[in-house]
Amino acid sequence: RVVELQELLEKQNGELGQTKDHLTCLSARVAELEEDLTTARKDLIKSEEMNTKHQKDLREALAQKDDVEKRITTLEKRYLAAQREVTSVHDLNDKLENELVNMESLHRQSEEKARNLQERLELADQRLQQMERRAETLPEVEAELAERIVALRKAEEKHGSVEERLRQLES
């Protein structure tokens, strides 16, 4: 029986050695797994930090996108307002150009009328000057006419007395 017990003891010692080896392997494996777990936890923490950072970046990017979209909308409104203003200015410019053409036409017509009136005025001035020259000689002509009237009356008186004499002679 001692042999059996010794064999049993040796067998158990062998199993115990194997168990120790196995336990050492398992301890090493647990240490390795704990190290992997620690690394995984660190990676998870880093991933969560990165995720938080990315979420913050995403929120900032979305806020910037909204801001840019608002700016784009504002710029589009300004652009449309500027286009309307440009159209309005073009329309006003066309209207003013038409008015300018009409004014130039009226100006030319006015200049033509002014030239015609100037020519008529010059002709009237010439006629007036001629009349003034005639008026200047009018006293001389009146004096000459008065002399002729006097001479005619004298001649009539002489003629009348000649006629009377003829009648007297005839009777």
Task: State the gist of this model.
By secondary structure, the chain is mostly helical.
Describe the model.
- It contains one helix and no strands.
- It has one helix at about 1-170.
- The longest helix is centred in the middle third of the chain and has 169 residues, at about 1-170.
- The radius of gyration is 70 Å and the shape is rod-shaped.
- The N and C termini lie far apart (about 235 Å).
List keywords for this structure.
171 residues, mainly alpha, 1 helix
What level of helicity do the residues show? Answer: over 70%
Number of helices: 1
* Biggest sheet descriptor: none
Give the C-alpha Rg: 70 Å
Residue runs with pLDDT of under 50 for 5 or more positions? none
Order of helices and strands: H
User: How far apart are the termini?
Assistant: 236 Å
How does the SSE layout of this entry go?
Elements: H1 2-170
